[in-house]
Protein backbone atom coordinates (compact mmCIF):
# COMPACT_ATOMS: atom_id res chain seq x y z
CA UNK A 1 0.00 0.00 0.00
CA UNK A 2 1.30 3.46 -0.91
CA UNK A 3 2.31 5.69 1.95
CA UNK A 4 1.02 8.57 -0.17
CA UNK A 5 -2.57 8.94 -1.23
CA UNK A 6 -2.60 9.98 -4.89
CA UNK A 7 -5.57 11.74 -6.45
CA UNK A 8 -6.53 12.09 -10.10
CA UNK A 9 -6.27 15.44 -11.87
CA UNK A 10 -10.04 16.10 -11.86
CA UNK A 11 -10.26 15.59 -8.10
CA UNK A 12 -7.32 17.92 -7.41
CA UNK A 13 -8.90 20.52 -9.69
CA UNK A 14 -12.21 20.24 -7.86
CA UNK A 15 -10.55 20.60 -4.44
CA UNK A 16 -8.58 23.67 -5.54
CA UNK A 17 -11.43 25.35 -7.43
CA UNK A 18 -9.65 25.10 -10.77
CA UNK A 19 -10.35 23.60 -14.17
CA UNK A 20 -8.65 20.24 -14.75
CA UNK A 21 -6.74 21.68 -17.73
CA UNK A 22 -5.30 24.37 -15.46
CA UNK A 23 -3.98 21.76 -13.01
CA UNK A 24 -2.56 19.79 -15.92
CA UNK A 25 -0.80 22.83 -17.37
CA UNK A 26 0.56 24.28 -14.13
CA UNK A 27 2.05 20.95 -13.04
CA UNK A 28 3.94 20.55 -16.32
CA UNK A 29 6.20 22.99 -18.13
CA UNK A 30 4.37 26.22 -19.02
CA UNK A 31 6.31 28.68 -21.13
CA UNK A 32 5.53 32.38 -21.24
CA UNK A 33 7.00 34.54 -24.01
CA UNK A 34 8.55 37.84 -23.02
CA UNK A 35 7.63 40.14 -25.89
CA UNK A 36 10.52 42.06 -27.35
CA UNK A 37 13.25 39.91 -25.81
CA UNK A 38 12.59 36.59 -27.48
CA UNK A 39 12.99 35.02 -24.04
CA UNK A 40 10.62 32.36 -22.73
CA UNK A 41 10.17 31.81 -19.00
CA UNK A 42 8.84 28.56 -17.56
CA UNK A 43 6.18 29.16 -14.90
CA UNK A 44 5.11 25.53 -14.60
CA UNK A 45 5.83 23.37 -11.56
CA UNK A 46 7.60 20.71 -13.68
CA UNK A 47 6.15 17.78 -11.74
CA UNK A 48 5.48 15.64 -14.81
CA UNK A 49 7.13 15.06 -18.14
CA UNK A 50 5.09 13.04 -20.62
CA UNK A 51 7.56 13.33 -23.49
CA UNK A 52 10.51 12.29 -21.33
CA UNK A 53 8.46 9.64 -19.46
CA UNK A 54 9.53 11.16 -16.12
CA UNK A 55 7.80 12.01 -12.85
CA UNK A 56 8.81 13.71 -9.59
CA UNK A 57 9.16 11.22 -6.75
CA UNK A 58 6.63 11.74 -3.99
CA UNK A 59 4.61 14.24 -6.03
CA UNK A 60 3.32 12.64 -9.22
CA UNK A 61 2.68 9.30 -10.82
CA UNK A 62 1.04 8.22 -14.03
CA UNK A 63 -1.58 5.54 -14.37
CA UNK A 64 -2.75 4.07 -17.66
CA UNK A 65 -5.41 6.77 -17.82
CA UNK A 66 -3.93 9.92 -16.33
CA UNK A 67 -1.55 11.73 -14.01
CA UNK A 68 -2.17 11.61 -10.28
CA UNK A 69 -0.90 13.89 -7.53
CA UNK A 70 0.11 13.31 -3.90
CA UNK A 71 -0.85 15.51 -0.95
CA UNK A 72 2.59 17.16 -1.20
CA UNK A 73 1.83 18.05 -4.82
CA UNK A 74 -1.63 19.38 -3.98
CA UNK A 75 -0.19 21.45 -1.12
CA UNK A 76 2.42 22.93 -3.46
CA UNK A 77 -0.15 23.76 -6.14
CA UNK A 78 -2.27 25.43 -3.43
CA UNK A 79 0.73 27.41 -2.14
CA UNK A 80 1.47 28.56 -5.70
CA UNK A 81 -2.17 29.58 -6.16
CA UNK A 82 -2.15 31.56 -2.88
CA UNK A 83 1.18 33.23 -3.68
CA UNK A 84 0.31 34.08 -7.31
CA UNK A 85 -3.49 33.96 -7.78
CA UNK A 86 -3.32 36.01 -10.98
CA UNK A 87 -1.33 33.28 -12.73
CA UNK A 88 -4.07 30.74 -12.03
CA UNK A 89 -6.85 33.17 -12.94
CA UNK A 90 -5.28 33.89 -16.33
CA UNK A 91 -4.62 30.23 -17.16
CA UNK A 92 -8.10 29.22 -16.00
CA UNK A 93 -9.73 32.03 -17.99
CA UNK A 94 -7.72 32.15 -21.22
CA UNK A 95 -7.35 28.42 -21.98
CA UNK A 96 -4.83 28.87 -24.74
CA UNK A 97 -1.71 26.99 -25.75
CA UNK A 98 0.77 29.82 -25.52
CA UNK A 99 0.97 32.78 -23.20
CA UNK A 100 2.74 36.09 -23.32
CA UNK A 101 3.96 37.92 -20.25
CA UNK A 102 1.49 40.70 -20.99
CA UNK A 103 -1.35 38.21 -20.38
CA UNK A 104 -0.38 38.33 -16.70
CA UNK A 105 0.34 42.04 -16.26
CA UNK A 106 -2.62 43.66 -14.63
CA UNK A 107 -0.77 45.49 -11.87
CA UNK A 108 2.69 43.95 -11.56
CA UNK A 109 5.09 43.95 -14.54
CA UNK A 110 7.59 41.89 -12.52
CA UNK A 111 5.10 39.08 -11.89
CA UNK A 112 6.65 36.52 -14.26
CA UNK A 113 10.13 37.08 -12.85
CA UNK A 114 8.79 36.81 -9.29
CA UNK A 115 7.02 33.55 -10.17
CA UNK A 116 10.19 32.17 -11.76
CA UNK A 117 12.26 33.01 -8.68
CA UNK A 118 9.69 31.45 -6.34
CA UNK A 119 9.48 28.29 -8.46
CA UNK A 120 13.25 27.84 -8.42
CA UNK A 121 13.18 27.90 -4.62
CA UNK A 122 10.37 25.35 -4.25
CA UNK A 123 11.26 22.95 -7.06
CA UNK A 124 14.98 22.69 -6.32
CA UNK A 125 14.41 19.58 -4.19
CA UNK A 126 12.48 17.64 -6.85
CA UNK A 127 13.88 14.23 -7.69
CA UNK A 128 13.09 13.08 -11.23
CA UNK A 129 12.55 9.40 -11.95
CA UNK A 130 11.33 7.22 -14.80
CA UNK A 131 7.58 6.65 -14.81
CA UNK A 132 8.02 2.96 -14.09
CA UNK A 133 10.41 3.55 -11.18
CA UNK A 134 9.16 2.49 -7.77
CA UNK A 135 9.98 5.29 -5.37
CA UNK A 136 11.12 5.35 -1.79
CA UNK A 137 7.65 6.57 -0.92
CA UNK A 138 6.44 2.99 -1.11
CA UNK A 139 6.09 1.18 2.20
CA UNK A 140 5.73 -2.54 2.60
CA UNK A 141 4.08 -3.79 5.76
CA UNK A 142 4.23 -7.46 6.71
CA UNK A 143 0.81 -9.04 6.95
TrEMBL record:
Pfam families: XRN1_D2_D3 (PF18334). It comes from the Eukaryota. This is Exoribonuclease Xrn1 D2/D3 domain-containing protein. The lineage of its organism: Eukaryota, Fungi, Fungi incertae sedis, Chytridiomycota, Chytridiomycota incertae sedis. It comes from Gonapodya prolifera (strain JEL478). Residues 3-138 form the Exoribonuclease Xrn1 D2/D3 domain. InterPro entries: XRN1_D2_D3.
